[in-house]
C-alpha cells in the first residue's frame, strides 16, 4: 500500500511532515510517496538526520498556502503545487491514499473536482472522529458544506455509518441528527425534513441529538451541515483545551498539588492521550472516490503518523466500494418511489 | 425590588423553586412573588419546613408543560398557567423581573408577545453568560431564532454589549461573530453580510470567532443565530461534563489516586464551581421590554437563587433604557443611509 503525502501542507511543513511519514513507514510498513520540492525535502531530512531510504519523492516545486483561494486548486497556475500534484497522483493511481495538512478548503475542492466524487454522491464531507466519554463519534460534515439539502444529509448518514462500521469497527452505528432539541418537530425546516428522510433510510437512526450529548456518546454518527459540525468540533476542542489548561494550573500551583500530580501522573497522561485530537489525526474526506485525509493545519510528526495509520485502515476497509453500492441502492429506491 | 417567580417551571418544581426563591429573599433582600397553585405551594413548603413569611403568592392553578406548544402561551386555555400568569403580572407592573425554569420556547414567545419587545428590537434572544478560561462570555442568540437576518444579528451585538458592560462590568466588550474561520470572507452569505454590517456598528467588533476560541476567551459577546448558539452552549456543557466525569473517575480509581484527590480537593472544588453552569443560572431574554430570565429546566434551589441574583443585577443596571436608546440611534442611522 502506498500513501501519497503532501510534504508542504500545514504550519510545520516540511520537517514534521517528513518525520511523521518516515515514522509511519517504519511503524506501519506502508510505502510513502512524498510530494514537494525535492531539493528542500532532501536538505531538511539531511539537516535533521532523517533517513529517506525507501521513501519515494515526487518533485513539485510550488506551495499552495492557506491564503490561496480553495477553488484555485484546479487552475494551471497552481498545478505545480505539492497539494494539486498530490491530488493528481492519487487520481492517476500513483498511490492508494493522499494525506495533506494544507488548505482545508482546497482539500475539499481537490477531492471534489480533481479526484472526483463517488458515483451518486452529491457532496464530499469532512468527517472527523472524536473521542467521547465512552468511545468515539463522527461529526459529518464538519466544514465543507455550509449550505445543504436533506438528501445531502441523508448521504452523510450513510457514508458515516459505513465508515464507523468498517474502519472504526462499530456494529450498526447509531446515527443522530444534530439539532436544538430531541423532539421530531425541533429545529428549522432542513432539520425537520431530514428527520423524516432519515426515518426511511437504511441506517440505525436514533433521532435528534443535542450538542450536549455528542461528547456524552449519544450517537456514533452525528449528521449536520458543515457550519454546525465545525462549531461542534471547534467548541469541543476549545473546551477541552481550556479545562486541561485549568487542571494543569491546579497541578502546578504549589508543592502539595505537585505531589498530587505525581500520584496520578500515569492516569492523567492516559486521559490526555485519550482526549488528544492529535491522536485522531484530522479527518477523512468522505464521498471522494479515493481515500483523502486532511490532517490538522498544526499537525506535527505524531499527527501525520496517525493520519497515515488511519489512511491505511481506510484503504484496507475498502469502504469506497461499500459506499458506492449503498448510493446506487438509495438512488434505485428514489427511482422506485418516483 | 420584586421578582416574580414561576413556582411550577422545570423538572424540580415546585419544591426546589420555592426553596431557591426563599433563599434569594433571605440572601439578597429582594421581594418575591411566587406564581402557581397556592394550596400546593403552601403544602410543599409546610411539608419541607420552609417558611413562606414575607413571600407573596399569586394563585394560578394551571401548569404549562414542556410538551405544550410554545405558541399556546398566548391562548385563553393557557392563561391560568403559572407561566402565562407570570408574564402577565410582569407586563402589568406587579414585579420588576420574571424568572421561570419552564418551557424554553414558551418563555421566548411570552417575552416576545405578552411582555413585548423593546421598541425597535426585531427579535428577543437567549443570551447565556458562560465561563471562559479567563472570564465570562455571552453567546447570543442561543436558542430562540434559528432563522435570522444580518440586521437581527447586529441588534444581538448591541444588546449583548450593553448587557456585558452594565451587568457583568466589562468595559468596551469585544464582539465576535461566530464563524467557521477568522477571515472576513468565511462562512455563508449571512455571516459575510453580518461581518460587513458589524464593521459599521457602534460596538467593539473584533471579527469572526471560531468555536475553539469561545471557551478560550476570544470575545466577550459571541453573536450567532439560535441554532449555532445552542450547539456551542450545549457542546460546551457536554464536554465539560464528560471531562469532569473522567477526572472524577481518575481521582476515585484507587487509594493512591484518592490521596492525590484529597491534596487538591479545595482547588478542584473551586474549579468545579467556576465551570458550573448552575452558578450562571440560565439566561436572560434580551430584547424583551422587561427583565425575563430563563433558568435551566433542571434548575435546583441554587440555580433559582442565582437566577434571582442575576435578575437583581439586570434590573439595577437598567439596561433596558440603554438598549432602547441604542436601538433608536441605530434606526436613525439606517434612516440617514436610506
UniProtKB/TrEMBL annotation, chains A, B:
EC nos: 2.3.1.274
CC annotations in GO: cytoplasm
Keywords: Acyltransferase, Cytoplasm, Lipid biosynthesis, Lipid metabolism, Phospholipid biosynthesis, Phospholipid metabolism, Transferase
Example GO BP: phospholipid biosynthetic process
Pathway: Lipid metabolism; phospholipid metabolism
Localization (cell): Cytoplasm
InterPro entries per UniProt: FA_synthesis, Phospholipid_synth_PlsX-like
SUPFAM superfamilies attached to this UniProt entry: Isocitrate/Isopropylmalate dehydrogenase-like
Predominant subcellular localization, coarse grouping: cytoplasm
Pfam family, one: FA_synthesis
Superkingdom of origin: Bacteria
GO MF annotations, alphabetized: phosphate:acyl-[acyl carrier protein] acyltransferase activity
Enzymatic reactions: a fatty acyl-[ACP] + phosphate = an acyl phosphate + holo-[ACP]
Chain's role: Catalyzes the reversible formation of acyl-phosphate (acyl-PO(4)) from acyl-[acyl-carrier-protein] (acyl-ACP). This enzyme utilizes acyl-ACP as fatty acyl donor, but not acyl-CoA.
NCBIfam families per the UniProt record, alphabetical: plsX (TIGR00182)
Family per similarity comment: Belongs to the PlsX family.
Protein name, as recorded: Phosphate acyltransferase
Gene source species: Ruminococcus difficilis
Gene name for this UniProt entry: plsX
Amino acid at each position: 500500500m502506498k500513501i501519497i503525502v503532501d510534504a508542504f501542507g500545514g504550519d510545520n511543513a516540511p520537517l514534521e511532515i517528513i518525520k511523521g511519514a518516515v515514522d509511519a513507514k517504519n511503524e506501519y510498513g506502508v510505502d510513502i510517496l512524498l510530494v514537494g520540492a525535492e531539493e528542500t525535502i532532501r536538505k531538511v531530512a539531511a539537516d535533521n538526520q532523517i533517513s529517506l531510504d525507501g521513501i519515494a519523492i515526487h518533485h513539485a516545486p510550488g506551495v499552495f498556502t492557506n491564503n490561496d483561494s480553495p477553488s484555485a486548486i484546479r487552475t494551471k497556475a497552481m498545478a505545480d503545487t505539492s497539494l494539486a500534484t498530490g491530488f493528481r497522483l492519487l487520481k492517476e493511481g500513483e498511490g492508494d491514499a493522499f494525506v495533506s495538512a494544507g488548505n482545508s478548503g482546497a482539500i475539499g475542492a481537490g477531492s471534489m473536482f480533481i479526484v472526483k466524487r463517488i458515483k451518486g454522491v452529491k457532496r464530499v464531507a469532512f468527517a472527523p472522529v472524536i473521542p467521547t466519554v465512552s468511545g468515539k463519534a463522527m461529526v459529518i460534515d464538519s466544514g465543507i458544506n455550509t449550505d445543504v439539502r436533506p438528501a445531502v444529509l441523508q448521504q452523510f448518514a450513510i457514508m458515516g455509518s459505513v465508515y464507523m462500521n468498517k474502519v472504526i469497527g462499530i456494529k450498526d452505528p447509531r446515527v443522530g441528527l444534530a439539532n436544538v432539541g430531541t423532539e421530531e418537530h425541533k429545529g428549522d425546516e432542513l432539520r425537520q425534513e431530514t428527520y423524516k428522510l432519515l426515518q426511511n433510510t437504511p441506517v440505525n437512526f436514533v433521532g435528534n441529538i443535542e450538542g450536549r450529548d455528542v461528547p456524552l456518546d449519544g450517537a456514533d454518527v452525528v449528521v449536520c451541515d458543515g457550519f454546525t459540525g465545525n462549531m461542534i468540533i471547534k467548541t469541543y476542542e476549545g473546551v477541552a483545551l481550556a479545562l486541561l489548561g485549568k487542571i494543569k494550573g491546579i497541578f502546578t500551583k504549589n508543592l502539595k498539588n505537585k505531589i498530587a500530580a505525581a500520584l496520578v501522573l500515569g492516569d492523567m497522561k492516559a486521559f490526555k492521550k485519550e482526549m488528544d485530537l492529535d491522536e485522531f489525526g484530522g479527518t477523512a474526506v468522505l464521498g471522494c472516490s479515493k481515500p483523502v485525509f486532511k490532517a490538522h493545519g498544526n499537525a506535527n510528526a505524531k499527527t501525520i503518523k496517525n493520519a497515515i495509520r488511519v489512511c491505511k485502515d481506510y484503504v484496507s476497509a475498502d469502504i469506497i466500494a461499500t459506499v458506492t453500492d449503498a448510493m446506487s441502492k438509495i438512488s434505485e429506491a428514489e427511482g422506485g418511489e418516483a
